[in-house]
Specification:
The complex is a heterodimer.
Chain A: H1 2-17, H2 20-33, H3 41-71, H4 76-83, H5 88-101, H6 109-118, H7 123-135, H8 138-147, H9 150-173, H10 182-186, H11 199-233, H12 237-244, H13 251-259, H14 266-278, H15 283-295, H16 298-305, H17 310-334
Helix pairs in contact in A: 2-3, 3-8, 3-11, 5-7, 5-9, 7-9, 8-9, 8-14, 9-17, 11-14, 13-15, 14-15, 15-17
Chain B: E1 2-6, H1 11-27, E2 32-36, H2 39-44, E3 52-55, E4 58-62, H3 68-76
Parallel strand pairs in B: 1-2
Antiparallel strand pairs in B: 1-3, 3-4
Helix pairs in contact in B: 1-3
Classes of the chains: A mainly alpha, B alpha+beta.
Chain lengths: ~350, ~80
Amino acid sequence: MLEATGDVLGWMNDNFLKMTWLNELVGRFIENVLGLSLTSKLGSSLQFFVYDAVKIFVLLSALIFAISYVQSYFPPERTKAILGRFNGITGMILGALLGTITPFCSCSSIPLFIGFTSAGLPLGVTFAFLISSPLVDLASVMLLASIFNWTTAIAYVIVGLVLAVIGGFIISRLKLERYVEPFVYGSHLADADLPDLTRADRLAFAREQVVDVLTKVWLYVLIGVGIGAIIHGWIPGTFISAVLGYDNPFAVIIATAIGVPMYADIFGTLPIAEALVGKGVGLGTVLSFMMAVTALSLPSMIMLKKVVKTPLLATFFGIVVTGIIIIGYTFNAFGRLFI
Amino acid sequence: MEIKVLGPGCANCKKLEDATRKAVEKAGLDATIAKVSDLQEIMGYGVMSTPALVVDGELRLAGRVPSVDDLVALLQRG
């Protein structure tokens, strides 16, 4: 019985999430209609590009729709009210968890930071939220499961949440409250009288989010898939493994250093990650790259600079970078268990 | 009718302002539309997810940019 359930789940995973049939279909088209061999550089790049681009856009639309519907139940105003009831490590764990499900874009990070802080939430809880929110994005976790597998996706979620909680914990221990701009504490966020949403409102919100996210990320995705396709078909595996492979002890640090200044969307980095793993790069190295791209972005740092002073911002940055590097090496050490 | 679009100046805030102007015109409403970008005033409405829409002092929308037609329906609901 258990085995049958596993088979059904595996079948659904292959067909809906991984869309293995699409890969075959694209492959047949390239071989029979275009007359290219799938082992040729051009043929394999083309197969990668078409399959990945179609798969990511289809999955993204479906996932954003479903996730946004759920997220409409967790506006930041409600998250703030929930977090206000907890303290210490429980607050940080909840902050990290709610960070994954509260709809939040970096343009709202200032009102959110002021709202949380002036409501008396400890800095550690607010930062646990701010670290986990971009890092553990539900749609990207599903895509990780699609590109790699569920073990990898779940491991990613767990390390992302642990990083957020530990980051929040360190920040709370360092007592950095004096590095918050004074006007933040002087602000007062009124209790919101949020309008009640009907099911039609939630569906409309979900639809708006799909359009909004797709218009924002389509170019990143295409560029990401393009780079992935080039790596997949053209760049020799020996070159890549020399720079980023298991044998280079600095691979994780290099990947993190490349990822931090990049401002891309996680959906654009996934196809690059996929191609790199296909060329023998360690899973930890690839995850470090993805986490560095998403967790720290210049626009959100500039936003945060308006509400916190440099020492706190630098601490936040340092903790996240160190955490990402540790996660990278840990995954590389144990990563062969996952893939 | 007095409409306020709350937002510190992100792309979506501009979108909501434009959509609101179109909706007011489409519905033929007699309304003033003001853009509020002052953080303290935004916080005064308890809003963290921008953009938001306040109609006659009442918070009607937060963290969304609805279509013009949805906005028309929202404004006509009174």
